[in-house]
């Protein structure tokens, strides 16, 4: 009987211990669940932050692409505008270049007619010469200003020959202009041909 009582007490103690273990295990499980939930929330919020950071980075990249594209387009507009202006300035270049020998012939004719005694002829040819000159000037043609005694510059004149300088001060300078030079806007379309002294 005593054995039964001891066994009963033992069983009772075991049951109490088992119940305590079960309660402790439930507490541990609840704590772990709470930790897991907190960790999951932390991961979710970290993912949300990461997602937000990704979106911000993508937005910054798109802004950068847009700004670069806009700047490139502005440069393209400026470049094409400048090219169009240049094209308008030089559109008549071929026609004007074809007219230059006619101008040269007219200048030579004017020099010969000026030697004659016929004032009326000189006046008439002079009027036509001036009209042609004014028309070409109106289209943008300008004479390159160069004369005997100027220093020779290969960027603005073409030396066709060298001769002994008639005077000391003409050494390395232009002695004579054989053919006039012309420019269209800032571009020289025919370089003046000169003789320089050495």
TrEMBL record:
Give coiled-coil spans as residue ranges: 15-72
Keywords for this protein: Chaperone, Coiled coil, Cytoplasm, Stress response
Query: Where does the secretion signal sit in this chain?
Result: none
Q: Which InterPro entries match?
A: GrpE, GrpE_CC, GrpE_head
Can you name this protein? Protein GrpE
Family, as annotated: Belongs to the GrpE family.
Its Gene Ontology cellular component terms are:
cytoplasm
Q: Tell me which HAMAP family the record gives.
A: GrpE (MF_01151)
Q: Which PANTHER family match?
A: GRPE PROTEIN, GRPE PROTEIN HOMOLOG, MITOCHONDRIAL
What do we know about how this protein assembles, alone or with others? Answer: Homodimer.
Annotated source species:
Flavobacterium akiainvivens
GO terms for MF: adenyl-nucleotide exchange factor activity; protein homodimerization activity; protein-folding chaperone binding; unfolded protein binding
